[in-house]
Amino acid sequence: MSNTSSYIEIKDLVVKYGKVEALHGISLNVKKGEIVTILGANGAGKTTLLASISGLIRPSSGTILFDGQPIQNIDSAEIVKRGIIQSPEGRRVFSTLTVWENLLLGAYTNHDKQKEKDILEWVFTLFPRLKERLKQLAGTLSGGEQQMLAIGRSLMGDPKLLLLDEPSLGLAPLVVRQILAAAKEINERGVTVMLVEQNAVAALKIANRGYVIEVGRIVMDGEAHALMHNPEIQKAYLGG
């Protein structure tokens, strides 16, 4: 479901925390309609990369183009309005609000009530558990349900590009399969997906392509199928 033009194109991206350089000139691209996974160990720079795209961190240098327009110097609220929405690592649901209230917060940039209603129905189709728990406080949900809610909340903003940061973290294998099957379904509905994952096997099964980050640098990239069968990847990430 991809075409040839880059939807997100990152060129020579450098990000620093104070004097410490976290990303050392990263370049990558994601085509419209793809699922691209970013693999790497903890602390490799995956979350920093996503935070740069979503405007939460300002890069020191380099460019981020979204649909041909530079976005590296615009604020996160404007980036959300343009259709880039992040489902953060650690879920970060509003624990003292209900499932319903969390979902409504995700729709704050969506002023089309009919579209909001349609997306809500789609979220309930993806995650029927959320419909069952609508009046429940988000903090009382299981980890898997909270992850479903975090993704559902992201979808309420009607993303063109969905940034999924470690959606499988801390979840049981069965729930991981459900979450990643939902990511595939979201993509099939027309949403481009960037998926940051430590679970390389699960991520590569649903992705079109992948990039491997080590200590702030991209050390490998390619088609998901080829990466899955690459001996270096198998040794480092797949327990081979």
Mind explaining what this structure looks like?
The protein has ten helices and ten strands. With 240 residues, the chain is α/β, with parallel strands linked by helices. It has a single domain (34-56, 83-238), classed as Rossmann fold. The strands form two sheets. The protein has a six-stranded mixed beta sheet, sandwiched between helices. Helix 3 (99-106) runs parallel beside helix 6. Belongs to the ABC transporter superfamily. Keywords: Amino-acid transport, ATP-binding, Nucleotide-binding, Transport. GO terms for molecular function: ATP binding; ATP hydrolysis activity; branched-chain amino acid transmembrane transporter activity.
Task: Throw out a few tags for this protein.
alpha/beta, 10 helices, globular, Rossmann fold, single chain, Branched-chain amino acid transport system ATP-binding protein, about 240 residues, ATP hydrolysis activity, P-loop_NTPase, ATP binding, about 35% helix, nucleotide-binding
